């Protein structure tokens, strides 16, 4: 028997979730999922009523969400009317997987960024003009600032590296 209790998401996880859903399925899908967050199961008419969207629009979004494993449904035959009723709910496993996949992606990006920071040497203008400059470019401009002419200084990116390492470690720990 599948548990039909609504999944409880704390503020932070539901924010992450909403950003993800917006990215994957658009803003209207976020409205639909928000209705579903506090309910164990809903029918499409209920979502339409709550969001003010048209029923066929809600259905289109639900199928898109189903396709991306964000929602799931069970159906029951309405004996009297002779057709199926669909009860929609959030797909807990699907969502967990999506969040996991996403985390993997973020981790890979952070590791790449860390490698970049560790391999490169940067320079910066002591008067604060512009961004930091990688070694090759600083060499090209003979270690002089394009804007004010000051001699460029070595930029210590140790703090950036430490921050990246801490972020990576925190993500790796989190199951
Ligand atoms: Zn300068």
Give the end-to-end Cα distance, rounded to a whole number of Å. Answer: 26 Å
- Across the major sheet, the strand order is 4-3-5
How many β strands by DSSP? 5
- State the fourth-level CATH superfamily of the largest domain: Winged helix-like DNA-binding domain superfamily/Winged helix DNA-binding domain
Structural class: alpha+beta
Q: Supply Rg.
A: 25 Å
Tell me, briefly, the overall form: elongated
Q: From the 3D coordinates, which CATH architecture of the largest domain would you assign?
A: Orthogonal Bundle
User: How is the main sheet built?
Assistant: 3 strands, antiparallel
Low-confidence stretches: none
Residue share in β-strands? 5-15%
- How many structural domains does the protein architecture include? 2
Order of helices and strands: HHHHEEHEEHEH
Give every kind of bound small molecule, once each: zinc ion
For the record, the CATH class of the largest domain is Mainly Alpha
Question: Whole-number average pLDDT?
Answer: 90
* Total number of helices: 7
Could you say what the CATH topology of the largest domain is called?
A: Arc Repressor Mutant, subunit A
Approximately how much helix is present in the residues?
Answer: 55-70%
């Amino acid at each position: 028997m599948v548990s039909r209790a609504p999944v409880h998401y704390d503020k932070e996880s539901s924010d992450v979730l909403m950003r993800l859903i917006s990215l994957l399925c658009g803003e209207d899908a976020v409205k639909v999922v928000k209705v579903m967050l506090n309910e164990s199961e809903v029918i499409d008419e209920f979502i339409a009523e709550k969001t003010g969207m048209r029923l066929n629009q809600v259905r289109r979004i639900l199928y898109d969400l189903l396709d991306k494993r964000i929602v799931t449904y069970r159906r029951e035959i309405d004996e009297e009317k002779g057709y199926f009723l669909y009860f929609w709910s959030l797909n807990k496993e699907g969502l967990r997987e999506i969040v996991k996949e996403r985390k993997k992606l973020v981790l890979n990006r952070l590791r790449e960024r860390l490698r970049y920071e560790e391999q490169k040497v940067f320079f910066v203008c002591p008067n604060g003009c512009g961004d930091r400059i990688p070694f090759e470019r600083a060499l090209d401009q003979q270690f002089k600032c394009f804007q004010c002419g000051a001699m460029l200084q070595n930029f210590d990116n140790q703090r950036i590296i430490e921050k990246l390492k801490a972020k990576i470690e925190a993500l790796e720990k989190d199951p």
